Each structure stands twice: as C-alpha cells, then as structure tokens.
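Issue 218. Parser rejects a valid record. Input:
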Amino acid sequence: MKRIVIFTVLFISVLSLAAQNDLNVMPPLDPAYRTGKLDNGLTYYIRHNTEPAGRASYYIIQNAGAILENDNQNGLAHFLEHMAFNGTTRFPDKAILNKLARHGVAFGTNINAYTSWDETVYNLSDVPVDKPGLVDTCLTILADWSDYITLKEEEIDLERGVIIEEWRTRQNANSRMTKKLFPVMFEGSKYAVRDIIGDTLILKTFSYDTLRSFYHDWYRTDLQAIAVVGDINVDEVETAIKKIFSSIPAVENPKPRINVTVPPQKGTRYVLATDPEAPGTSVNLFIMDEKPDNRQRDLAYMRDMYITDIMNSMMGKRISELLQKGTPPFIAASVSYGGFIPRNYNVLSVAAQARDNEEAKAFEAVLIEMERARRHGFTQGELERAKSTLLVNYESAWKQKDKISNDTYAEDIQSNFLTSEPLPSIDFEFDFFKKILPQITLDDVNTKFSSTVRDDNRIILISGPEGVNHLSKDEALALVSKVGKADIKPYDDVTGATELINETLPGSAAIKSVALPQFSAVEWTLANGAKVVFRNADYEKDNVTVTGYSFGGSSVFADSLIPSISVFPAVIAMYGAGEFDNVALQKMLAGKKASVTLGLQETMQSVSGTSTPGDFETMMQLLYLRFAKPNFNREAYDAIIGRYIAMVTAMQKDPNKMMSDSLTLNITGYSPRTFVMTPESMKKIRFEDVNYIYRNAFDDASSFTFFIVGNIDEAMARSMSEKYIGSLPSIRAGESWSDRGVRQPEGKVIKEIPIPLTTPKATVVMSHTARTKYRPENNLAMEVLKGILDLVYTEKVREDEGGTYGVTVSASTQLRPVSKSVLLVAFECDPVRASELKAIIYNELNEIAKNGPSQVNLDKAVSNMLKKREEALPHNNYWAGTIRNYYVTGINSDDPRNFAEILNEMTTDDIRKIVGKYLKKADLLEIVFVPEKK
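Output the parser choked on:
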C-alpha cells in the first residue's frame, strides 16, 4: 500500500512539473514491474499479466550481437543462437523443444529467437502456468542459455548445413543490393563489414573453439536481462530467479561492451546497387543523424516522440494523396524519420519506387514533397487531423490496457534494458499524452521536420535491375540542387463536407427475431430481407466488428471478367464512398476508428469492418455507403491500375513472381479462369468491368447475412442495423454460386521447371488434393496432420540432414465449390540435394499412412491445438468467426463435440486410416523449380 501511495505522489508531482513545461524529469517506472539486479550483474523484470490468462512468457535479452564478432567470427552470433536449441547442460540435444511441445508450446511459434547487430533475444511465449514445475523449467532453460549451452562438436557440424540453407533462403535481390549499401552508409564502422548471417566460408570452416570463445566473451550476466510476464505469482518468480540465476558466475575481466558509433561523412555519397533479379527500381535519399541520440529518456524525449509520430503521419497522408491522383510520378513513395540499424541513430528516409526509365521523375517528385514540407511546413488542418488520429489510437489502447499481451510487455522491457527507453504505466503515459498534446504547436512540428533535412551526411541509393540506364551521381545531385532552388507552392489542404450522409434514410424494421442460445446471440430478419446476427462480446472493450457474406462470388461472373476480378478489392478500396473520393473520405474519418472493406472470393462476396463502440455508427454509415452509394472514381482507378502495370512490368525478372505464376497455373490446371498478371494481360482489366462487378455483387441486401460482435448493447446494434443495413437496396433475387470446374490436374504430375537464378537454389512444392467429406473429424485430422508433419520434417529434413532452413506444411479443407482437402509441402534447398530430400518427405508421409504417427507427436500436435483454442476463446474475433462459420458451413466449432472431444479421442490409428485413405485417392502435383542452366 505504501508503494502505491509513493507512486501516486510521484505521478502527481511529475504531471505538475509537466504542466509547468518542466520536462527534464524522468517518467516513473510502472510500479507493476518488479525489477532487480543480482550480485553477478544479471538484471530481471517481472510483471503479472493475464493476457492471455493462464500463460506466461519468458525472455532472456542478451546485449550482444553480430557487431561484437571478430573477423574470424563473422556470422557466429547468429550461429550461437541456433545452437541454444541443440542442447544445454540440463536439457541435452532437443530436450528443450520436446519438453515444451508436450504442453502445446510449439517451436517457431511460441519458442523462438532472433539475432541482430546489437542484441540477441530468446523467448518462450504463452507457456501454460498451471502445469506443476513448468515455471521453474522455463527459468532453468533461460539459465542454461545464459551460461550452459553445451556446443557439442557433432551438433555444431549438423547446424552448419541448416545455417547455409538459411543463407541460401535469404539470398535474393534485395539482400544482395543491401550488402552494397552498408559499406558506404556505415563507412568507418563495424556495421559496414558485419551482417547477421555471416560469411559462408567461415560458417563452413570455423573451429569449435572460435564459437565457444564468442559465447564465453559475450553471453554473460552483466549483459543479460531476464523478463517474465504472465499469469504468475511475482514473489514466487522473483524467489526462483534469485535461486536459479545467482549461481551463474560473473565472467572475470570481462571485455568492455562498447557501443559502436558511425563516424559522420561530409557531403553526399552515392551508391548504385543493381541485380539481375531486382523486382523494380527505387531511388532513396538517406539523411543520417551525425551521432547517437543519447539524450535522457525523460518527459521531453517522450514529447519529441509524439511530435515525430505526428510529422510522419502528415507526410504519409500527403504521399498517399499523390498516389490516388492522375498518373502518380512514382509507384510508391515515403518520407519518414525514425530509428535505424545502429543503436540510437535516426535517419530521414526519402524513398520512391520508380517506373522503368522514370527514376528522375520519381526522385524529383518525392524530393519536392520533402522540400515543400521543409520550406512551407504543414497546415493547421493537417496537424489537427493527425492529433485526432493519434489521440484516438492512444485512447483505444488505454481502454484495452488489460488486453496488452505478455509479449508486448516483454518487448517494452527489452527496449528499456537495451536502450533505456521509458517504461511508464499506460495510465501515466495516456494522462501525460492528453496533457501535452494540446501544447504541441504547428511550429514545433515544422521545426522538427526542418531539422531533419540537412545537406550533410547523406547517401543517395539507386537500386534496380541490370541492363537499365540508372541515375548517375551527378544526375541525382543535380536533381537535389534543382529541387532546392525550385518554386514550390505550399500544400493546398482541401476539405469539404462534415457529414458522411446528408440524406434521410428509410430504414426497415426487424420483422423476425430468433434467439441463438448456443452462441448467446440473436438473429434479426429485416424488412428488406437482410439478416443480422448480434452477439455482445466485451473481452476487447474498445472493439466492434461487422462481417457479412452472400453466396455467389467470382463464380457467377464470366471468364472474360476474371482479369478485373483479380484487382477488384484493391481498386474499390481506392474509390472512396458516397460523394467523397478516398482522399476526402480519409480526412472525414480523421480522429475516428472505423473502416469497412468489401471482398470477392470464389463462391461468396463479403464485407468486413471494425470500429470502437463510440464510432460504431460511423462504421455502419460506411457500410451503407460502400453498398448503396459506390463512388466510381475514374481518376483513382487510373492511378492504381497504372501503378499495378508498372509494378508487374518491373517484376518480370523476379524469380519469386515467375515461380508463383507458374505454380498458380499448374495447380489450377491452366484454367481459363486463372489470371496471371503480365504487362500484356493487364490490358484486359477495364474500368467498366470493375464497376459492373461492384454493382452486381453488392446490389441485394436480402441475400446477405451480417454479423455484429463487440462491446455495444443489443438495443444500439438493432437500431443501427435497422437504420443502415435496413436502408440497403434489396431486389430479392436470391444468390447462389457455381462450380466452374477449376481443379488440380488428375493423377500424378511431376515437373521440373528451370528458373534464372543468381544463387543456386531449388524450390520444391508438392500438392496433394482429394475429394473428402467436409466434417469436423476430417477437418481436424488435417490440422493434426499438419502439426505432426511440422515436427517430423523439422527433425528429419532440417536437423538430421541439415538440408533446408525449414519445411512449410499447409493443410486445409474447403466446402465449396467442391468438398476437398489439400496438403501442400514446400521447401528450398541446394539443387543437388532436391531428390534426396524429396524422398524423405514422401517416406515420412507414407510411414504415417502405413503405421500411423508416433503417440508422442500426436500428443504434441493435439496439445498445441487445444492450447491455441483455449487462448482464442475469450476474444471477440473468436466469436465473430465461429458464428459466421456456423452459418456458412452448418458446423458449430464451439461445440466440444466438434472440437475438443474429437481431438481428445483421436488415436494414432485414426490418423493412419484417414491419411492412408486420403493419399490413395489424392491427386499429386510435384514441381521442382531449379536454376536455369547458363
């Protein structure tokens, strides 16, 4: 109690100082955190939290990364991260993964890690807390990662292959072009010569002791923090941390942990980075801060963060406007200020994606927008809209403060430990934000932006495909100079009406009401034929969703309209609604959290919206306008289609697009309804066709069922439904879908397709598809099979063989247009090993079909599914999805008979029978993309 009183006094005192503009005080640490430091130097943070209930997340944060490597250790910080999962003193071999998997804690999802230049972070997330001894087990795992990774020589050698395959997977045009930028951008520092994945020669040949040396030097208690956040007893966890971690010895005579700085460079440097696989051309100007931001992380620092957020928001809106008008000068662009790779450095990043042979046009246009803001500043209207948007976002987060996840808190802890970022309570920050926001003036923001635009320590980066005339350094500098001298007018902030709907809507009453006790919901039938299902759900207090569907979808439209259908959702999202184009609409919605989008799938058309309870009516107004008052905006259409054509043209040499297009065509049997975007095929997309599809798909409310789920009362939901959904047009024509016969080829089809590649790599895709009955037992069996195969292929293909960075397994079922199941397996590897690894994939699958999976793997897969369901159950989205799925499929997946009871009774023999039967009748498409012979 005394602690709370002290905090309250400090809280009031700090805010009083802030009100007097004395911002040079530190924000108080959120008292919900228990922090401390052991005698060996290890720091700990503990926090009780119940999102999700019954779970806890455990992190070990290492203030050590690739920047600390010696030249002969390039890549070993990341290598060491991998080795942490390959055995520790108390958890030999794969015992960590096996121990946690039995409790539904999955590798890659709940168990993971990452290595950066400056830190390495490990996490065990959303671990159940009700399993005896599991809290201590997780803390012991973190302790072993701290000082007791075994680094067995045979395990190191096995992991070399995995890391090489990770390197291979990450080798693409962007990564290769980035490697050409960093030596210039970070000239004079180790950032110029270090990357995370490292040098492949070193990875293949480093001595075991070289890795052990890095581990000893840098994984040490004075550079480590433990974070535990979850539904735990804070006192008990603190006691356990002291007991488990205090025995770890501090390293004697530790090497100094120096924060590497980047020396500023005079003038403007230039980098041209080309690659034969580049998916497009981009032009960039980076203006780097000359030194790290080592300011005190005080209230003034927090205020400055808000100014930066406002500034970036306003620049983003200006760029967005340009992209929706006429023929935009670039495909995409941005101007933003923020953090960068070296710790505590910031950079103003000015970027534009250019059309072929239009680099100068794109670069000049984005430079003009930067210069316009620097020279003339922003407008008061822009500032007020940006403030309103930021305020509503903070307010929404504050209202749902009890729904902040364990991992979000852990990320905040990480920032506090590594870079001293503030760690106040959300109550304190929201109160401070509300007080300081009105004091942020237009001059504050304009001054901040102007200070980021400088003539020194700049880098111009031109990146794109080979064989193209790119801007030279002299040409790029000439454009910078030209824009600096140009006559640039201030931004014209055009605003219009203040109401979304100015007409009186007729509405229609609910003429029938049916209770749905199984969902604690109610269904209304409105006089215009539309159905509305409502469920109050207040787990997320500041959230309401509306979804809806009607059968039909793309299946009711002719083959000739498929090109226009392929871009339909993206195009109509840019149309605006009612009398407002999208630019005006977004200005109207500033300060509100409400959105509605329309979609078109194969057998249905859909609507999806979200809002806060306070903006529920705005969301319903948007729904009405999207349906009843579409804004067929030719200028917006031309702008987005022009950008699409430019992007597709630029991607013709992108191997990923080549493989994606080829796979799509093959998996659909080269159906005439399969559309692949090329510069030539894009000509088949027509403005009139998009609008025809829009009018026909959303012209009949009587065919739609809408679902409203969220924190509003029933009377409000009914009233707004009657007013807005009840006013939608209704022709009572009825809707149905058609089976257009799009199928994977029958039988067994095996193809090898050459692709031009810079880095030799094989991409293997195997697709099994078979007609199956759509029922809970089959659907869940496919999900269980996916979980089992994830485990098996990780062990057999990745770990035992070192053959790939990972095998992707996807298992899905569908009801329409035909009831079927699809099992898709894909991986990348060295081309010479493709056949060998394919054989393992098939062998393991056939072994399950013949003898069933191991009981251990079945238990792990089922535990993970039950755990994820338990975590999802309270959430609003769970109920929205469950109720909608019931209407679409007739299956109530919330019923234990359709989920938990099936899983708990499932046996290895059940899986054997289902998989065996499935594989016997499944069509198989196997495609191996291999490097084209030069």
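Fixed in the parser; the record now loads. Residues 32-245 form a domain with the Cytochrome Bc1 Complex; Chain A, domain 1 fold (CATH 3.30.830.10).
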